[in-house]
Design goal:
With 138 residues, the chain is α+β, with helices and mostly antiparallel strands. It has 5 helices and 6 strands; from the N terminus they run ββαβαββαβαα. It has a 4-stranded antiparallel beta sheet with strand order 3-5-4-6. Strands 1-2 form a two-stranded antiparallel sheet. It binds iron/sulfur cluster (SF4) (2 copies).
Length: 138
Amino acid sequence: MRQRIIAIKNEEISLQDKCSLCTGSKCCTYITQHITTPRSKADFDYLLWQISHGNIKVYKDSDGWFLLIESKCHHILADGQCGIYETRPQICRDYSNDFCEYDAPAEESFELYFNGYDALMDYCRKRFKRWDRWLGER
Ligand code: SF4
Ligand code: SF4
């Protein structure tokens, strides 16, 4: 996402002063999808299926549970600029870069973070007694 002007420490700096320093345009390389809070074994079994797919991660923060889908936007140009800046979607316009992934990895604000199937499976084993038995008896 891009904003023309951002404010950092009460000082206005231009887009180039921050976003142009952000190699890879991190905020344009993924999407997130809010999901219903998983509670039951069946919920986590479903989540295990989702995280088994490529580039899918799962996290929980103060806003709830989310799928993190790592997939670069098609509109990023080679120089990192947005190729559809004037008509970019509203969510891109709303995104603030006053404190973004350039300042700190998003993971730092996560309460839970699962980077793949094995991590989520380990969590299920800790969360549910007899998890493995339940898996085998379905
Ligand atoms: S449309 Fe532009 S600002 Fe939005 S994610 Fe894609 S490259 Fe980034
Ligand atoms: S992560 Fe922050 S600095 Fe990097 S492109 Fe996005 S808004 Fe700009």
